[in-house]
UniProtKB/TrEMBL annotation:
The organism of origin for this protein: Benzoatithermus flavus
Region of interest (Disordered), ranges: 1-27
Pfam families: hemP
Protein name as annotated: Hemin uptake protein HemP
Gene3D superfamilies, A to Z: Complement Module, domain 1
Length: 57
């Protein structure tokens, strides 16, 4: 049965978005390296000469 327009919609948990793939091109924005801050530490995501991704702390 379709949902009525006036029915409240459950808040998004973000889980659906977390499962959606993100292009490395979109993430890196044309750069070869990206610094990511996670729990107070800096990580480097970089593209190797062979086109692979490496994440290092």
């Amino acid at each position: 049965m379709p949902r009525q327009a006036d029915e409240p919609q459950a808040p998004s948990t973000g889980q659906d978005d977390a499962r959606q793939p993100v292009s490395s091109r979109e993430l890196l924005g044309g750069r070869r390296e990206l610094q990511i801050v996670h729990n107070g530490s800096i990580y480097r995501l970089r593209v190797t000469g062979n086109g692979k991704l490496i994440l290092t702390k």
